[in-house]
Amino acid sequence: MAETVLEQILDDLRSQAVTHYPQRGDFKNLRVVGHTPKNDHFIYDVCIDFAAGSERAAIKIYKPGKTGGNAKSVARQENANLQYVNQTLTAKRKLDGVPRVLGDYSDLCAVVTEKVAGLPVQSIIMKAALLPGFADNGSIALVALRAGEWLRSFHKATADAPEPFDSAALIASMEKLCKSCQTEGLDGDAVELIMNGARSALPRNRKSLPSSAVLCDFTPLNVVVTEKGVGFCDFAHMKRRGNSFEDLATFLASVEALEKYPFCNRSITGQIQENFLDAYSVSQSDAALLRVFKMKALLGMFAQGRTVKESALRKKVMWANVMKKFINQAAQRSMSPAAAA
Fold this sequence. Notes:
CATH architecture of the largest domain: Alpha-Beta Complex
Helix content: 40-55%
CATH topology of the largest domain: Aminoglycoside 3'-phosphotransferase, Chain: A, domain 2
Distance between the termini: 58 Å
């Protein structure tokens, strides 16, 4: 099915290419130059050739059988999110690194945009971890700064009225996550440390949280470094309004979780988190609250478990053991009395 849908989209792009890129002159050719299969969709990398240069596009086609039969509505929602972001940023401020939509192909279960070319931040982190001295040349610090600046600009452009802060609900959700993690082997001492640290860190007089559009997937794997700075392409799970700290916590937790790999040490992940927070201009009081949201995000990763085939039980057990050790370390670092001091 994906191949048939792809041909329909390619035919339409050929006829609309000049409309999308009038500055490039006459249309010459269109080529599919890459193909990446994902769990619930395919991504096709397309090169559009014109008389005065070339442009790259990305065609994302959802698999009906992998989206609960809702591939069309999933594509429609992602298209709507992209349209909203493009219109909002155009009206309020220019922010590079956001893909432009090239037509609405929701009825074909597809999303077609310009390709934001770049290298994922996670690839740069892994390079820094594997190559001696690479982390010392300032590159990962610069990447973290730009990621923080980009996210702050995005949240400012989509800012909404502050939303109420319910500390009791946050504690209850963390207790629920801790119970789920205990079934995977997280020990009681770690749970006690996490919950006591969370209760101590939460400000008693805080009534609201900053609100904006929330990307939900702002992780080192989805943030790309471009020639102009950084970019972000995956708006499938974006919420029009939510707690802005969710995006910060997701990024920080995803960076810290890379420590589960033996070659990715604390000096690298710590440097990235520190520069990211500095660029976002996080206050000291907000930093304490963010530690709690980050811990919640880490617990969510552990509770979700690694998705493997039932026959690969050994891999699942190994992953749980690694995550259990990592969560213990993260709790000692972020939720202990020393961390709050």
